[in-house]
Amino acid sequence: MKVPAPAPVVVDELVTETADRLFGEWCTHEAAQAAEEAGCAPDLWEAFCATGFDLIAIPERAGGSGGTLAEAMEVLRLVGYHAAPIPAAEHGMLGGWLLAQAGLERPDGLVTVLPPRTADGGWSGCGSCSVEIADDGIARLTGEARRVPWARISEVIACVCEHDGHTWVVCVPADQCAIAPLPNMAGEPRDTVRFDGATGHAAPAPDGVDAAALAQRGALSRAALMAGAIEKMCQLTVSYTNERVQFGRPVARFQAVQQHLVWAAQDAALVRMAAEAAAREATRGDARFEIAAAKLVANQAAARATKACHQAHGAMGMTQEYPLHHFSRRLWSWRKEYGSDAHWAGVLGQMATGVGADGLYPLITAGTAGLG
Protein backbone atom coordinates (compact mmCIF):
# COMPACT_ATOMS: atom_id res chain seq x y z
CA MET A 1 0.00 0.00 0.00
CA LYS A 2 1.31 3.40 -0.94
CA VAL A 3 2.08 5.65 2.03
CA PRO A 4 0.40 9.07 1.72
CA ALA A 5 2.88 11.90 1.47
CA PRO A 6 2.84 14.37 4.36
CA ALA A 7 2.64 18.10 3.88
CA PRO A 8 5.99 19.38 2.65
CA VAL A 9 8.37 20.66 5.30
CA VAL A 10 9.37 24.19 4.34
CA VAL A 11 12.19 26.21 5.87
CA ASP A 12 11.53 29.94 5.97
CA GLU A 13 14.12 31.62 3.76
CA LEU A 14 14.40 34.40 6.32
CA VAL A 15 15.74 31.87 8.84
CA THR A 16 18.48 30.78 6.47
CA GLU A 17 19.38 34.30 5.38
CA THR A 18 19.46 35.72 8.90
CA ALA A 19 21.54 32.88 10.35
CA ASP A 20 23.95 32.88 7.40
CA ARG A 21 24.43 36.64 7.68
CA LEU A 22 24.94 36.46 11.45
CA PHE A 23 27.58 33.73 11.22
CA GLY A 24 29.24 35.35 8.21
CA GLU A 25 29.77 38.48 10.29
CA TRP A 26 30.98 36.84 13.50
CA CYS A 27 32.68 33.58 12.49
CA THR A 28 36.02 34.76 11.21
CA HIS A 29 39.14 32.62 11.28
CA GLU A 30 40.54 34.80 14.06
CA ALA A 31 37.34 34.44 16.11
CA ALA A 32 37.45 30.66 15.80
CA GLN A 33 41.08 30.59 16.90
CA ALA A 34 40.33 32.82 19.89
CA ALA A 35 37.29 30.75 20.92
CA GLU A 36 39.37 27.58 20.88
CA GLU A 37 41.82 29.11 23.33
CA ALA A 38 39.12 30.57 25.57
CA GLY A 39 36.71 27.62 25.36
CA CYS A 40 33.78 29.80 24.29
CA ALA A 41 32.70 32.75 22.14
CA PRO A 42 30.43 34.82 24.42
CA ASP A 43 29.89 37.70 22.00
CA LEU A 44 28.79 35.37 19.22
CA TRP A 45 26.54 33.45 21.62
CA GLU A 46 24.90 36.66 22.79
CA ALA A 47 24.24 37.72 19.20
CA PHE A 48 22.90 34.26 18.39
CA CYS A 49 20.47 34.34 21.32
CA ALA A 50 19.31 37.83 20.41
CA THR A 51 17.88 36.43 17.17
CA GLY A 52 15.88 33.71 18.99
CA PHE A 53 17.79 30.94 17.20
CA ASP A 54 18.96 29.48 20.51
CA LEU A 55 15.47 28.14 21.28
CA ILE A 56 14.16 27.46 17.79
CA ALA A 57 11.80 24.46 17.50
CA ILE A 58 10.75 24.87 21.15
CA PRO A 59 7.10 25.98 21.40
CA GLU A 60 6.43 29.53 22.52
CA ARG A 61 4.20 28.22 25.31
CA ALA A 62 7.32 26.56 26.76
CA GLY A 63 9.39 29.72 26.53
CA GLY A 64 10.87 28.96 23.11
CA SER A 65 10.93 31.02 19.96
CA GLY A 66 8.80 28.61 17.92
CA GLY A 67 9.81 27.25 14.55
CA THR A 68 10.01 23.76 13.14
CA LEU A 69 12.47 20.93 13.51
CA ALA A 70 13.50 21.49 9.90
CA GLU A 71 14.34 25.12 10.69
CA ALA A 72 16.35 24.07 13.74
CA MET A 73 18.26 21.62 11.54
CA GLU A 74 18.95 24.36 9.00
CA VAL A 75 20.37 26.61 11.72
CA LEU A 76 22.60 23.77 12.94
CA ARG A 77 23.74 23.10 9.37
CA LEU A 78 24.87 26.73 9.19
CA VAL A 79 26.58 26.41 12.58
CA GLY A 80 28.62 23.59 11.06
CA TYR A 81 29.10 25.44 7.77
CA HIS A 82 30.65 28.44 9.56
CA ALA A 83 32.39 26.42 12.31
CA ALA A 84 30.55 28.57 14.85
CA PRO A 85 32.00 27.77 18.30
CA ILE A 86 28.69 27.85 20.18
CA PRO A 87 26.51 25.25 21.99
CA ALA A 88 23.56 25.67 19.62
CA ALA A 89 22.59 21.98 19.61
CA GLU A 90 22.91 21.42 23.35
CA HIS A 91 21.06 24.53 24.52
CA GLY A 92 17.98 24.37 22.32
CA MET A 93 17.53 21.20 20.33
CA LEU A 94 18.61 18.90 23.18
CA GLY A 95 18.67 20.46 26.65
CA GLY A 96 15.94 23.02 26.04
CA TRP A 97 13.76 20.40 24.35
CA LEU A 98 14.24 18.00 27.26
CA LEU A 99 13.20 20.57 29.88
CA ALA A 100 10.22 21.72 27.80
CA GLN A 101 8.98 18.16 27.33
CA ALA A 102 9.09 17.53 31.09
CA GLY A 103 7.59 20.89 32.01
CA LEU A 104 10.66 21.97 33.95
CA GLU A 105 11.52 25.66 34.14
CA ARG A 106 14.27 26.76 31.79
CA PRO A 107 16.86 29.11 33.32
CA ASP A 108 18.06 32.33 31.74
CA GLY A 109 21.55 30.92 31.23
CA LEU A 110 22.95 28.15 29.09
CA VAL A 111 21.47 24.65 29.26
CA THR A 112 23.54 21.63 28.35
CA VAL A 113 22.63 17.98 28.36
CA LEU A 114 24.25 14.83 29.65
CA PRO A 115 24.58 12.64 26.54
CA PRO A 116 23.49 9.02 26.76
CA ARG A 117 26.31 6.61 26.07
CA THR A 118 26.31 3.35 24.20
CA ALA A 119 26.61 0.19 26.24
CA ASP A 120 26.02 -3.30 24.83
CA GLY A 121 24.22 -1.79 21.86
CA GLY A 122 21.80 0.24 23.98
CA TRP A 123 21.57 3.57 25.70
CA SER A 124 22.44 3.81 29.38
CA GLY A 125 21.06 7.14 30.49
CA CYS A 126 23.37 8.88 32.94
CA GLY A 127 26.19 6.42 32.49
CA SER A 128 27.89 5.85 35.83
CA CYS A 129 25.59 8.28 37.70
CA SER A 130 22.91 7.28 40.19
CA VAL A 131 19.88 9.33 41.18
CA GLU A 132 17.58 9.58 44.17
CA ILE A 133 14.28 11.43 43.77
CA ALA A 134 12.20 12.56 46.75
CA ASP A 135 8.43 12.89 46.81
CA ASP A 136 8.70 16.67 46.37
CA GLY A 137 10.58 16.25 43.06
CA ILE A 138 14.02 17.11 44.44
CA ALA A 139 16.68 14.93 42.82
CA ARG A 140 20.14 14.09 44.08
CA LEU A 141 22.75 12.92 41.57
CA THR A 142 25.92 11.02 42.42
CA GLY A 143 28.64 9.82 40.07
CA GLU A 144 30.74 11.00 37.16
CA ALA A 145 29.94 11.83 33.56
CA ARG A 146 32.56 12.36 30.88
CA ARG A 147 32.59 14.38 27.67
CA VAL A 148 29.70 16.63 28.69
CA PRO A 149 29.46 19.38 26.04
CA TRP A 150 29.99 22.96 27.22
CA ALA A 151 29.54 22.07 30.90
CA ARG A 152 32.02 24.67 32.16
CA ILE A 153 29.98 27.60 30.79
CA SER A 154 26.51 26.17 31.48
CA GLU A 155 24.05 27.24 34.15
CA VAL A 156 22.26 23.87 34.35
CA ILE A 157 22.84 20.33 33.18
CA ALA A 158 19.80 18.32 32.07
CA CYS A 159 19.68 14.55 31.81
CA VAL A 160 17.40 11.54 31.53
CA CYS A 161 17.47 9.12 34.46
CA GLU A 162 15.78 5.89 35.48
CA HIS A 163 14.45 5.75 39.03
CA ASP A 164 12.06 3.33 40.67
CA GLY A 165 11.04 1.85 37.34
CA HIS A 166 10.20 5.20 35.76
CA THR A 167 11.96 7.63 33.44
CA TRP A 168 12.68 11.11 34.80
CA VAL A 169 14.10 14.33 33.44
CA VAL A 170 16.50 15.89 35.94
CA CYS A 171 17.91 19.41 35.90
CA VAL A 172 20.93 20.18 38.12
CA PRO A 173 22.69 23.56 38.57
CA ALA A 174 26.19 23.34 37.16
CA ASP A 175 27.67 25.25 40.11
CA GLN A 176 26.82 22.28 42.35
CA CYS A 177 29.07 20.03 40.29
CA ALA A 178 32.82 19.60 40.12
CA ILE A 179 33.77 20.27 36.48
CA ALA A 180 37.16 19.39 35.02
CA PRO A 181 37.63 21.25 31.70
CA LEU A 182 38.60 19.07 28.77
CA PRO A 183 38.43 19.88 25.04
CA ASN A 184 37.55 17.69 22.11
CA MET A 185 39.74 17.50 19.02
CA ALA A 186 38.32 20.82 17.78
CA GLY A 187 38.91 22.64 21.06
CA GLU A 188 35.23 22.62 22.05
CA PRO A 189 34.46 21.91 25.73
CA ARG A 190 33.75 18.26 26.47
CA ASP A 191 34.17 18.32 30.21
CA THR A 192 34.21 15.76 33.00
CA VAL A 193 31.45 16.40 35.55
CA ARG A 194 31.24 14.93 39.03
CA PHE A 195 27.86 14.93 40.76
CA ASP A 196 28.83 14.62 44.41
CA GLY A 197 25.32 14.75 45.77
CA ALA A 198 24.30 17.65 43.53
CA THR A 199 20.61 18.47 43.95
CA GLY A 200 18.16 19.71 41.37
CA HIS A 201 14.61 19.35 40.15
CA ALA A 202 13.07 16.28 38.53
CA ALA A 203 9.87 15.66 36.62
CA PRO A 204 8.42 12.49 35.10
CA ALA A 205 9.33 12.17 31.43
CA PRO A 206 6.30 12.01 29.12
CA ASP A 207 5.78 9.11 26.75
CA GLY A 208 8.37 9.09 23.98
CA VAL A 209 10.98 10.97 26.02
CA ASP A 210 13.74 8.68 27.23
CA ALA A 211 17.44 8.03 26.75
CA ALA A 212 16.87 6.50 23.31
CA ALA A 213 14.84 9.52 22.14
CA LEU A 214 17.53 11.89 23.40
CA ALA A 215 20.20 9.84 21.65
CA GLN A 216 18.29 9.94 18.36
CA ARG A 217 17.76 13.68 18.63
CA GLY A 218 21.44 14.12 19.44
CA ALA A 219 22.44 12.03 16.43
CA LEU A 220 20.15 14.16 14.27
CA SER A 221 21.82 17.33 15.55
CA ARG A 222 25.28 15.98 14.75
CA ALA A 223 24.20 14.94 11.26
CA ALA A 224 23.07 18.53 10.58
CA LEU A 225 26.30 20.01 11.93
CA MET A 226 28.39 17.59 9.89
CA ALA A 227 26.42 18.30 6.72
CA GLY A 228 27.33 21.98 6.96
CA ALA A 229 30.98 21.36 7.81
CA ILE A 230 31.50 18.94 4.91
CA GLU A 231 29.84 21.37 2.51
CA LYS A 232 32.11 24.25 3.54
CA MET A 233 35.20 22.04 3.56
CA CYS A 234 34.37 20.99 0.01
CA GLN A 235 33.93 24.61 -1.10
CA LEU A 236 37.25 25.61 0.43
CA THR A 237 38.92 22.79 -1.47
CA VAL A 238 37.38 23.76 -4.80
CA SER A 239 38.46 27.39 -4.35
CA TYR A 240 41.99 26.47 -3.28
CA THR A 241 42.62 24.02 -6.11
CA ASN A 242 41.37 26.52 -8.68
CA GLU A 243 43.69 29.21 -7.32
CA ARG A 244 46.75 27.02 -6.81
CA VAL A 245 48.82 26.70 -10.00
CA GLN A 246 51.27 23.90 -10.78
CA PHE A 247 53.03 23.29 -14.10
CA GLY A 248 51.26 26.27 -15.59
CA ARG A 249 47.67 25.35 -14.82
CA PRO A 250 45.33 25.19 -11.77
CA VAL A 251 45.72 21.97 -9.82
CA ALA A 252 41.94 21.50 -10.05
CA ARG A 253 42.45 20.54 -13.70
CA PHE A 254 44.57 17.50 -12.82
CA GLN A 255 42.58 14.29 -12.97
CA ALA A 256 43.77 12.98 -9.59
CA VAL A 257 42.71 16.22 -7.87
CA GLN A 258 39.40 16.24 -9.71
CA GLN A 259 38.70 12.81 -8.27
CA HIS A 260 39.17 14.18 -4.73
CA LEU A 261 36.84 17.07 -5.52
CA VAL A 262 34.15 14.75 -6.87
CA TRP A 263 34.33 12.49 -3.82
CA ALA A 264 34.04 15.45 -1.44
CA ALA A 265 31.15 16.98 -3.37
CA GLN A 266 29.30 13.65 -3.41
CA ASP A 267 29.69 13.27 0.33
CA ALA A 268 28.54 16.84 1.00
CA ALA A 269 25.36 16.29 -1.03
CA LEU A 270 24.75 12.84 0.46
CA VAL A 271 24.98 13.92 4.10
CA ARG A 272 22.80 16.97 3.61
CA MET A 273 20.15 14.90 1.86
CA ALA A 274 20.24 12.20 4.55
CA ALA A 275 19.98 14.75 7.38
CA GLU A 276 17.07 16.58 5.73
CA ALA A 277 15.26 13.30 5.04
CA ALA A 278 15.68 12.21 8.67
CA ALA A 279 14.39 15.55 9.95
CA ARG A 280 11.40 15.36 7.61
CA GLU A 281 10.54 11.87 8.81
CA ALA A 282 11.05 12.86 12.47
CA THR A 283 8.51 15.65 11.96
CA ARG A 284 6.13 13.07 10.53
CA GLY A 285 6.56 10.46 13.27
CA ASP A 286 8.89 7.58 14.11
CA ALA A 287 12.24 8.14 12.37
CA ARG A 288 14.51 5.61 14.03
CA PHE A 289 15.54 4.07 10.74
CA GLU A 290 16.19 7.41 8.99
CA ILE A 291 18.11 8.92 11.91
CA ALA A 292 20.31 5.85 12.27
CA ALA A 293 21.01 5.90 8.53
CA ALA A 294 21.71 9.66 8.51
CA LYS A 295 24.22 9.48 11.37
CA LEU A 296 25.97 6.47 9.86
CA VAL A 297 26.15 8.16 6.46
CA ALA A 298 27.49 11.34 8.07
CA ASN A 299 30.12 9.45 10.08
CA GLN A 300 31.41 7.60 7.05
CA ALA A 301 31.26 10.62 4.75
CA ALA A 302 33.21 12.73 7.24
CA ALA A 303 36.13 10.30 7.07
CA ARG A 304 36.12 10.15 3.26
CA ALA A 305 35.63 13.88 2.70
CA THR A 306 38.33 14.85 5.20
CA LYS A 307 40.81 12.58 3.48
CA ALA A 308 39.93 13.90 0.01
CA CYS A 309 40.01 17.58 1.01
CA HIS A 310 43.26 17.37 2.95
CA GLN A 311 44.96 15.46 0.14
CA ALA A 312 43.85 18.08 -2.38
CA HIS A 313 45.19 20.86 -0.16
CA GLY A 314 48.49 19.19 0.57
CA ALA A 315 50.60 20.79 3.30
CA MET A 316 48.52 24.00 3.30
CA GLY A 317 45.56 22.17 4.82
CA MET A 318 47.60 21.26 7.89
CA THR A 319 48.51 24.81 8.90
CA GLN A 320 46.87 26.79 11.70
CA GLU A 321 46.69 29.86 9.49
CA TYR A 322 44.42 28.18 6.94
CA PRO A 323 40.77 27.52 8.02
CA LEU A 324 40.39 23.93 6.75
CA HIS A 325 41.27 22.42 10.11
CA HIS A 326 38.37 24.18 11.83
CA PHE A 327 36.02 21.96 9.83
CA SER A 328 37.96 18.70 9.61
CA ARG A 329 38.70 18.61 13.34
CA ARG A 330 35.06 19.29 14.17
CA LEU A 331 33.96 16.53 11.84
CA TRP A 332 36.25 14.01 13.47
CA SER A 333 34.95 15.06 16.90
CA TRP A 334 31.25 15.05 16.00
CA ARG A 335 31.40 11.67 14.25
CA LYS A 336 32.25 10.06 17.60
CA GLU A 337 29.33 11.67 19.43
CA TYR A 338 25.83 10.21 19.76
CA GLY A 339 26.81 6.91 18.22
CA SER A 340 29.79 5.63 16.29
CA ASP A 341 29.78 3.86 12.93
CA ALA A 342 29.66 0.50 14.66
CA HIS A 343 26.75 1.47 16.89
CA TRP A 344 24.46 2.81 14.17
CA ALA A 345 25.41 0.02 11.77
CA GLY A 346 24.38 -2.39 14.50
CA VAL A 347 21.09 -0.56 15.06
CA LEU A 348 20.27 -0.70 11.36
CA GLY A 349 21.28 -4.36 11.21
CA GLN A 350 19.04 -5.24 14.16
CA MET A 351 16.12 -3.41 12.58
CA ALA A 352 16.65 -5.17 9.27
CA THR A 353 16.99 -8.64 10.74
CA GLY A 354 14.09 -7.98 13.10
CA VAL A 355 11.60 -7.54 10.27
CA GLY A 356 12.93 -10.47 8.25
CA ALA A 357 13.47 -10.79 4.52
CA ASP A 358 9.88 -9.97 3.62
CA GLY A 359 9.86 -6.87 5.78
CA LEU A 360 13.12 -5.29 4.60
CA TYR A 361 11.69 -3.48 1.59
CA PRO A 362 8.68 -2.10 3.55
CA LEU A 363 11.06 -1.00 6.30
CA ILE A 364 12.89 1.20 3.82
CA THR A 365 10.00 2.38 1.68
CA ALA A 366 7.51 3.04 4.51
CA GLY A 367 9.52 6.13 5.46
CA THR A 368 10.81 9.02 3.46
CA ALA A 369 12.06 6.74 0.68
CA GLY A 370 8.50 5.65 -0.03
CA LEU A 371 7.00 9.11 -0.45
CA GLY A 372 5.74 10.44 -3.74
Describe this structure in words.
The strands form 3 sheets. Strands 1, 4, 5, 6, 7, 8 and 9 form a 7-stranded mixed sheet that branches. The chain has a two-stranded antiparallel sheet with strand order 2-3. It is an alpha+beta fold. Among the domains are: 110-207, Butyryl-CoA Dehydrogenase, subunit A, domain 2, CATH 2.40.110.10; 211-370, Up-down Bundle (Butyryl-CoA Dehydrogenase, subunit A, domain 3). Helices cover 50% and strands 16% of the residues. A hairpin with a 2-residue loop joins strand 6 and strand 7. The chain starts with 12 loop residues before the first helix and ends in a 7-residue tail after the last helix. Helix 5 (88-102) packs antiparallel against helix 6. The longest helix has 33 residues, at 211-243.
Element layout with pairings:
Elements: H1 13-26, H2 29-38, H3 42-50, H4 69-81, H5 88-102, E1 111-113, E2 118-119, E3 122-123, E4 130-133, E5 138-149, E6 156-163, E7 166-173, E8 178-180, E9 190-204, H6 211-243, E10 245-246, E11 249-250, H7 255-284, H8 288-313, H9 324-334, H10 341-365
Parallel strand pairs: 1-6
Antiparallel strand pairs: 2-3, 4-5, 5-9, 6-7, 7-9, 8-9, 10-11
Helix pairs in contact: 1-4, 4-6, 4-7, 5-6, 6-7, 6-8, 6-9, 7-8, 8-9, 8-10
Question: Quick one: overall form?
Answer: globular
CATH topology of the domain at 211-370: Butyryl-CoA Dehydrogenase, subunit A, domain 3
Distance between the termini: 12 Å
Based on secondary structure, the structural category is alpha+beta
Task: Tally the beta strands.
Answer: 11
Tell me, rounded to a whole number, the average pLDDT: 89
